[in-house]
Amino acid sequence: MPYPSTREIVNKAWKMGIVVPAYNVPYLPMLEPIVRALRDSGSFGLIQVARLETVKFKAESFTRIAEEYGKFKDPNFTRLHLDHVPVIDEDGLSIDYVEEITGAMKAGYESVMVDGSRLPFEENVAATRKVVEAAKRFNVPVEGELGAVIGHEAGPMPPYEELFSSGKGFTDPREASEFVKRSNVDWLSVAIGNFHGAVAPGRRDDKKIAARLNIEHLKKINAVAGVPLVLHGGSGIQKECLREAFKNGIAKINVGTNIRQPYERGSAESAEKGGEMVYAAMLDVIKNELGVEGTAGKLLG
Ligand code: 13P
Question: DSSP states of 4-16 as a string?
Fold first, then answer.
């Protein structure tokens, strides 16, 4: 029996109300302890890298991550995903996104994300559609984003409570439905109170505010989107909100800051300590934050 594809696994997770976490790898040595922690806890996860992690951190390149993944991967517990390739990046630069994403698919990425969320709606649809077309020949699922999941940009964050209570930047359910139909995207990343941990120099050590999620709003999106939904900014979200989100359409959650910061603290002491810290942080995320111990058997069995 061949191993199930990422598309099949995420669809199954969505139907079962299980979440597939995707772990960011901004430093190459993080990859091995992440895979080891998944295997040791019987948990399924995606290993992912975002474009900005090759530019602002030490992931080097999509190809280097794919090579490193090739050394440690375990098809019973892992798949390789390409996180944020923005059309316009967090500093306002235009990115050659179709070429970069196509290059990654050639290098073996098994699912990809195009982030057109900084574009007006029509342009986001068009850009996402282009990537969906390019992905067809690789039979690779595509994640798009609609709504403003802020945090990667330089400059101070607006006050969180104001952001949450106003719902400013939240994904509009009607737009979500139209976006999925017209772009044919496989998975949709949504904004419902979640935000990314900071990556700007000088702020990347900051502890994240414990975000909340507007579950009623999520339910409205989930009722009409028709595809698995994705939650970015998965570090440090209040646990009760997470549990409800997984029951209401969130089938993939991205986790970066919660494993990156321990790695950075540990590796400042020694390479070995860096690895130990990631491994311990992974077990904490798997068992305590997300409650995803033992999901590999349920999703691949
Ligand atoms: P956090 O760093 O806030 O966990 O977000 C990660 C993420 O969403 C990467 O796309």
Answer: PPHHHHHHHHHHH
Ordered by where they begin, the domains of the chain are: 6-300 (3.20.20.70)
Between CA 276 and CA 172 the distance in angstroms is: 41
Is residue 250 over pLDDT 80? Answer: yes
Judge whether 84 and 35 are in contact, CB under 8 Å: no
Comparing CA positions, the residue from 144, 294, 148 lying closest to residue 233 is 148
DSSP 117: T
- Rounded CA-CA distance 71/73 in Å is 6
Distance 55 CA to ligand 1 centre (A): 16
Lowest mean pLDDT, pick from 33-47, 73-87, 152-166, 224-238: 152-166
Q: Is 83 a catalytic residue?
A: yes
- This prediction has a pTM of 0.97
Ligand 1 mean position, distance from CA 253 (Å): 8
What is the number of the ligand 1 atom nearest to the C-alpha of 113?
10
Q: From start to end of 183-300, where are the E strands?
A: 187-190, 229-231, 250-255
Q: Are 220 and 173 in contact (CB under 8 A)?
A: yes
**Tokens encoding 236:** 């440090």
Pocket of ligand 1 (CB under 6 A): 24, 50, 83-84, 196-197, 232-235, 254-258
Q: How far is the CA of 48 from the centre of ligand 1 (A)?
A: 11
